[in-house]
TrEMBL record:
Origin species: hydrothermal vent metagenome
Phylogenetic placement of the source organism: unclassified sequences, metagenomes, ecological metagenomes
Domain spans labelled Transposase IS204/IS1001/IS1096/IS1165 DDE: 1-61
Protein name per its UniProtKB record: Transposase IS204/IS1001/IS1096/IS1165 DDE domain-containing protein
Family annotation (InterPro entries): Transposase_DDE
Length: 66
């Protein structure tokens, strides 16, 4: 081991995510679509901040993403 904390941290990150990394290179699968959805949902939540009616909130989500 190198003893350099940044390299150790990078190696640990790679080990922790190795199956996802391999999956990307084998199948070209990634989680980009779900990350994009989460970003859109976060923006939507900012726009409707203060809405107290849950039913209306979910109605707007279904309209926006349908």
């Amino acid at each position: 081991k190198s003893g350099i904390k940044e390299i150790i941290s990078a190696a640990n990150t790679i080990e922790r995510n190795l199956s996802g990394i391999e999956n990307y290179f084998i199948n070209r699968d990634s989680n980009a679509a779900i990350e994009g959805f989460h970003a859109k949902l976060k923006l939507f939540r900012q726009r409707v901040r203060g809405v107290k009616d849950k039913d209306f909130f979910f109605f707007r989500i279904f309209q926006y993403y349908a």
